[in-house]
Amino acid sequence: MPEVLKAPLVVEFPFTRSLGPVQSAFLTGLRERVVLGVRTGDGRVLVPPVEYDPVTAEEIRDLTEVAPTGTVTTWAWNHSPRRGQPLDTPFAWVLVRLDGADTALLHALDAPGPDTVHTGMRVRVRWAAERTGAITDIACFEPYDGDPTSPGDHTGEFEEPVTGIVAPARLDYTYSPGRAQSDYIAALSGRRTVGERCPSCRKVYVPPRGACPTCGVATSEQVEVGPRGTVTTFCIVNIKARNLDIEVPYVYGHIALDGADLALHGRIAGIPNDEVRMGLRVEPVWTEGARYPDHYRPTGEPDADYDTYKELL
Amino acid sequence: MTREGVEDVRDIAVVAFAQTDHRRTSGELSEVEMLMPVLHEVLQATGLKTADIGFTCSGSSDYLAGRAFSFTMALDGVGAWPPISESHVEMDGAWALYEAWTKLLTGDADTALVYSYGKSSPGSVRDVLTRQLDPYYVAPLWPDSVALAALQAQALIDAGETDEPALAGVAARSRASASANSHAQLSGAVPHGDYLVRPLRRGDCPPIGDGAAAVILAAGERARELCPRPAWIRGIDHRIEAHGLGLRDLTDSPSARLAAEKAGALERPVDTAELHAPFTSQEVILRKALRLDDEVTVNPSGGALAANPVMAAGLIRIGEAAARIHRGESDRALAHATSGPCLQQNLVAVLEGES
C-alpha cells in the first residue's frame, strides 16, 4: 500500500448576513459606544438583544440602553488563545450581565491571570479603536472597581444604521483521500489508470472510491484500464473558470476508458471543437511532471459503435 | 413521545448495533471506507441485505472533515442504486435514528438502517464547532467548544454542585469502565493533565477522534425474527433550549429533563443510563436533570469521555444501551444524546428488553 497522501485544504468564506431591526440597532449602537438591550413583554431586558422573545416567540422591539459596566456570571481561563479570538494573550472567557440587563453577554476579559478573576467581579467594556458595527466593536472587558455607571436613554435610532455584517470564516484541514483514491493517484503519477472491480457485480470503477455504489460492498481488486477510451458525451465550455489557465471555448467530455464501467471527466483537444462527437476514440496526453493527463486527443481510430458505450452515458 | 394514547402504534426495536474502533486519526481511510465495515456488521448480525432495508437514514457534518457533500459519498457504502428510500440529517446519528423511528411508526417501512460517522482528524474540531454558533454575536469571537464547556463547568462549581476533584472522579470512572470496551479510544488510568481551559483539564475533555456507528431498527414481529432479545424503544423525545448562552441556566438542563419526561423515562427507574456527556461537568448536570441515583449504572461503555466521534457519539449511546439489553445485561435503559454548545439540545430514549 502506498503512503497515505495528505494535502492542506483551506475552506474560507466571507459570510454576508443581513440584520433584523433589533440586531441592526444593537450593532450600530456598539459602533457608537452605546449598548442596547431589548425589553420582553414581562419586563426583562435581554442583552445581547434578540428579535423574538425566546420564551413566548413574541416579536420584541422595545430597545433600552444599558450600562457599559456589569458583573461576571461565569468565567473560564483561556491559557492559549486561538486564531480569531478577541485577544492574543491569555484571557478569561466571561459571561457578563451588564448593569440594567437581566441576561448575560459572552465576551473576553483582559485580566492579568486566573487568580484575578472570579464570578461576581465587576467589569466594563473596553471599546475597540475602530468600530464598524460588529460584536468585535467591544474589544473585550476589563476589570472595573468604580461606581456603577447609569445607562443613557438612547432609543436605538441612529444615523446610518448598519444593515448587515460580513463575517469571515476560515477553517484549515489536512485532506486525505483514503485508501482507494490514494492507490488511484499513486498509479496515475506513473501514467497508469487503475480502477477497482466490484466483487459482486464485476463493474470496474474509475476513479475508485473504495465502494461499489450499487452493491454497497468494498472494492479492492485493482484493474488497469485505458489508456484509450471513448467519448460518451461532451459539452463546450464558454465561461472561463477562476484560477484555470485554459482558453475558452474548450471541450469537456465524459470518457469511458477501455475496460472501465464508469466514464471519467477530461478535456478534449487536438481536434476542432465542432468535430468532437459521441463515440470519438481518444487517448491521454501527458505533460512532463504532471500527476494526471493534461487532456485527451483523438487516436484516429474509427468511432466506437453506440452499443458499446450506451450503458456508460 | 411515548406510545401511550396512540392507537394501533407499532413496537419498534433496536435489533443490531456496531461501531468502529475509535482512533485519533483514520487518515488511511476515506469516510465510506471507515463506515462500510460497521454497515456490513449490522447487516450480517440480522441476516439482512441492503435490498431488504426499508429506510436508510444517516447523520454527519461536512464541516468536520471539510468535504462538501461527504454524506453522498458515504451512501456508496449502502448500495443506494437502484434508488433507496433515504434521508440524512446534519446532526448526530441519534437524530437520524429519531427520524427512522417515526418513519417506521408510519408503517411505510418495517426495517431501517441508521448510521453516522465523523472524522475530526482532518480539521480542528474545537474551531469547527464554533461555526454552529450564533453568527451575529458569538461566532465572530471564535469561542471554541472547550471554552464554552468550561464556562458551564465554572458555573456549576460556583453553584456548589461539584468541584474539580469530583469532576476528575467522573473522568477516572469513565475511563476505568472503558477498559472493558475494546472500541474505546481512551481507557484505563489516564492522567488528568493540565488545564485546557480552566477549570477543565485535559482529562475532563473527550478524546478527539474518528469513528462510525450503525444501528438497525425493526418493527413488531420483524424485530423478533431478527434479534433474540430486541431492545424495544418505549419512548423517545428531543428538546432544545434558547441558543443564547447568557439566557440559559447553564447549571441545569431543562430540555434533557423534558425530553426524559416525554419519553417516559421518569415513570420507572432505569437500571442503566448511557449519557452523551463529552465533558465531565455535563455528566453532573445530566444526572441531576434526569434524576439518576447511584443505583443506576452510568456509562458502562465509558461514554463520550472514552470515545467521542462527533456526529456518532450520540447514536453510540443508544447502540450501547441496546447492546446491553441484547446481551441480557439490562432490562430498562436510558440513552441520551446531545447537540450544540453546553447541552443545548437533548434527546432521550427509553429502551426495554422482554423478560
UniProtKB/TrEMBL annotation, chain A:
Keywords: DNA-binding. The keyword ATP-binding does not apply. The keyword rRNA-binding does not apply. Residues 65-127, 223-286 form the ChsH2 C-terminal OB-fold domain. Residues 192-218 form the ChsH2 rubredoxin-like zinc ribbon domain. GO terms for molecular function: DNA binding. Gene3D superfamilies: 6.10.30.10. It comes from the Bacteria. PANTHER family: BLR3430 PROTEIN (PTHR34075:SF5). This is DNA-binding protein. It comes from Streptomyces acidicola.
Automatic annotation (TrEMBL), chain B:
SUPFAM superfamilies: Thiolase-like (SSF53901). One of its GO terms (molecular function) is acyltransferase activity, transferring groups other than amino-acyl groups. This is Lipid-transfer protein. It comes from Streptomyces acidicola.
